[in-house]
Design a protein that fits this description.
- This protein is an all-alpha fold.
- The protein is built from 4 helices and 2 strands.
- Strands 1-2 form a two-stranded antiparallel ribbon.
- A hairpin with a 2-residue loop joins strand 1 and strand 2.
- Helix 1 packs antiparallel against helix 4 and helix 2 packs antiparallel against helix 3.
- The radius of gyration is 19 Å and the shape is elongated.
- The two termini are 13 Å apart.
- The model has no long low-confidence stretch (mean pLDDT 82).
Protein backbone atom coordinates (compact mmCIF):
# COMPACT_ATOMS: atom_id res chain seq x y z
CA UNK A 1 0.00 0.00 0.00
CA UNK A 2 1.36 3.42 -0.99
CA UNK A 3 0.40 5.05 2.32
CA UNK A 4 3.00 3.08 4.24
CA UNK A 5 5.95 4.24 2.13
CA UNK A 6 5.83 7.77 3.53
CA UNK A 7 7.05 9.04 6.88
CA UNK A 8 5.08 11.74 8.76
CA UNK A 9 8.04 14.17 8.87
CA UNK A 10 8.30 14.32 5.09
CA UNK A 11 4.70 15.45 4.68
CA UNK A 12 4.90 17.90 7.60
CA UNK A 13 8.02 19.55 6.17
CA UNK A 14 6.51 19.75 2.68
CA UNK A 15 3.25 21.08 4.11
CA UNK A 16 5.10 23.72 6.09
CA UNK A 17 6.99 24.70 2.93
CA UNK A 18 3.66 25.15 1.14
CA UNK A 19 2.17 27.26 3.95
CA UNK A 20 5.30 29.42 4.11
CA UNK A 21 5.26 29.91 0.35
CA UNK A 22 1.55 30.71 0.26
CA UNK A 23 1.90 33.23 3.09
CA UNK A 24 4.81 34.84 1.25
CA UNK A 25 3.04 35.29 -2.08
CA UNK A 26 -0.11 36.52 -0.31
CA UNK A 27 2.08 38.99 1.58
CA UNK A 28 3.59 40.18 -1.72
CA UNK A 29 0.15 40.72 -3.20
CA UNK A 30 -1.01 42.42 -0.01
CA UNK A 31 1.95 44.78 0.02
CA UNK A 32 1.10 45.72 -3.54
CA UNK A 33 -2.70 45.92 -3.39
CA UNK A 34 -3.11 47.21 0.16
CA UNK A 35 0.29 48.57 1.14
CA UNK A 36 0.90 50.57 -2.02
CA UNK A 37 4.30 49.04 -2.81
CA UNK A 38 4.66 48.62 -6.55
CA UNK A 39 6.74 45.69 -7.80
CA UNK A 40 9.60 46.21 -10.20
CA UNK A 41 10.50 43.83 -13.02
CA UNK A 42 12.72 41.70 -10.74
CA UNK A 43 10.04 41.59 -8.04
CA UNK A 44 7.59 40.16 -10.57
CA UNK A 45 10.22 37.68 -11.78
CA UNK A 46 10.78 36.46 -8.20
CA UNK A 47 7.09 35.65 -7.90
CA UNK A 48 7.39 33.06 -10.67
CA UNK A 49 8.84 30.53 -8.22
CA UNK A 50 5.63 30.78 -6.23
CA UNK A 51 3.37 30.71 -9.29
CA UNK A 52 4.99 27.52 -10.58
CA UNK A 53 6.21 25.86 -7.40
CA UNK A 54 3.16 26.21 -5.15
CA UNK A 55 0.61 24.60 -7.51
CA UNK A 56 2.95 21.67 -8.10
CA UNK A 57 3.62 21.31 -4.38
CA UNK A 58 -0.12 21.49 -3.67
CA UNK A 59 -0.73 18.74 -6.23
CA UNK A 60 1.91 16.60 -4.51
CA UNK A 61 0.36 17.25 -1.10
CA UNK A 62 -3.16 16.46 -2.31
CA UNK A 63 -2.07 13.18 -3.94
CA UNK A 64 0.50 12.31 -1.29
CA UNK A 65 -0.54 8.75 -0.48
CA UNK A 66 -1.46 7.90 -4.07
CA UNK A 67 1.79 8.92 -5.76
CA UNK A 68 4.34 6.29 -6.71
CA UNK A 69 7.55 6.97 -4.81
CA UNK A 70 9.55 7.74 -7.97
CA UNK A 71 6.98 10.34 -9.05
CA UNK A 72 7.04 11.85 -5.55
CA UNK A 73 10.84 12.20 -5.68
CA UNK A 74 10.73 13.80 -9.13
CA UNK A 75 7.95 16.23 -8.20
CA UNK A 76 9.57 17.28 -4.91
CA UNK A 77 12.93 17.68 -6.69
CA UNK A 78 11.30 19.91 -9.32
CA UNK A 79 9.64 22.07 -6.64
CA UNK A 80 12.95 22.28 -4.76
CA UNK A 81 14.73 23.38 -7.94
CA UNK A 82 12.06 26.01 -8.63
CA UNK A 83 12.52 27.51 -5.17
CA UNK A 84 16.31 27.25 -5.48
CA UNK A 85 15.84 29.51 -8.52
CA UNK A 86 13.80 31.76 -6.20
CA UNK A 87 16.77 31.94 -3.81
CA UNK A 88 18.97 33.00 -6.71
CA UNK A 89 16.49 35.63 -7.96
CA UNK A 90 15.97 37.11 -4.49
CA UNK A 91 19.71 37.22 -3.85
CA UNK A 92 20.38 38.74 -7.26
CA UNK A 93 17.73 41.42 -6.71
CA UNK A 94 19.01 42.22 -3.21
CA UNK A 95 22.50 42.57 -4.68
CA UNK A 96 21.18 44.99 -7.30
CA UNK A 97 19.52 47.01 -4.53
CA UNK A 98 22.78 47.15 -2.53
CA UNK A 99 24.73 48.09 -5.65
CA UNK A 100 26.88 44.94 -5.58
CA UNK A 101 26.24 44.39 -9.30
CA UNK A 102 24.23 46.06 -12.05
CA UNK A 103 20.64 45.08 -12.62
CA UNK A 104 18.87 44.58 -15.91
CA UNK A 105 18.97 47.70 -18.06
CA UNK A 106 15.19 47.52 -18.46
CA UNK A 107 14.62 48.44 -14.81
CA UNK A 108 17.75 50.26 -13.61
CA UNK A 109 19.52 53.42 -14.66
CA UNK A 110 18.09 56.37 -16.54
CA UNK A 111 16.00 54.53 -19.12
CA UNK A 112 14.68 55.86 -22.42
CA UNK A 113 13.58 59.36 -23.32
CA UNK A 114 10.24 60.46 -21.88
CA UNK A 115 7.26 60.94 -24.18
CA UNK A 116 4.47 63.21 -22.95
CA UNK A 117 1.92 60.66 -24.19
CA UNK A 118 3.30 58.29 -21.57
CA UNK A 119 1.94 60.58 -18.85
CA UNK A 120 -1.52 59.13 -19.44
CA UNK A 121 -0.22 55.83 -18.03
CA UNK A 122 -0.37 56.48 -14.30
CA UNK A 123 1.15 53.18 -13.23
CA UNK A 124 4.33 53.95 -11.27
CA UNK A 125 7.53 52.50 -12.66
CA UNK A 126 9.84 51.35 -9.89
CA UNK A 127 13.50 50.77 -10.62
CA UNK A 128 14.93 47.41 -9.63
CA UNK A 129 17.65 49.20 -7.70
CA UNK A 130 15.14 51.17 -5.61
CA UNK A 131 14.28 49.80 -2.17
CA UNK A 132 10.73 50.69 -1.14
CA UNK A 133 10.82 48.96 2.24
CA UNK A 134 13.43 47.59 4.64
CA UNK A 135 12.96 45.83 7.94
CA UNK A 136 16.06 45.33 10.12
CA UNK A 137 18.15 46.46 7.15
CA UNK A 138 16.83 43.75 4.84
CA UNK A 139 14.73 44.57 1.78
CA UNK A 140 11.77 42.55 0.57
CA UNK A 141 14.02 40.97 -2.07
CA UNK A 142 16.39 39.90 0.70
CA UNK A 143 13.52 38.43 2.71
CA UNK A 144 12.31 36.62 -0.40
CA UNK A 145 15.75 35.04 -0.78
CA UNK A 146 15.72 33.95 2.88
CA UNK A 147 12.17 32.60 2.70
CA UNK A 148 12.89 30.75 -0.54
CA UNK A 149 15.98 29.28 1.15
CA UNK A 150 13.81 28.14 4.08
CA UNK A 151 11.39 26.51 1.63
CA UNK A 152 14.28 24.71 -0.08
CA UNK A 153 15.51 23.59 3.34
CA UNK A 154 12.09 22.25 4.31
CA UNK A 155 11.81 20.37 1.02
CA UNK A 156 15.28 18.89 1.53
CA UNK A 157 14.18 17.80 5.02
CA UNK A 158 11.19 16.13 3.40
CA UNK A 159 13.39 14.31 0.90
CA UNK A 160 15.88 13.35 3.62
CA UNK A 161 13.14 12.02 5.91
CA UNK A 162 11.79 9.91 3.06
CA UNK A 163 15.24 8.53 2.25
CA UNK A 164 15.91 7.67 5.92
CA UNK A 165 12.50 6.02 6.19
CA UNK A 166 13.18 3.95 3.04
CA UNK A 167 16.54 2.74 4.44
CA UNK A 168 14.86 1.64 7.68
CA UNK A 169 12.02 -0.17 5.92
Amino acid sequence: MAASIFHPLDKKAAGLAFVLGLATILGAWGSQLIGGLFPCELCLEQRMAYYYGLPLLLAVLLTWNRLPLAVWYIAIAIVTAIFAWGVYMGSYHAGVEWGFWPGPTACTGVGDAMDFNALSDMTPVIGCDVVQFRLFGISLAGYNALISLAIVGLLLISISAQMRHRKQA
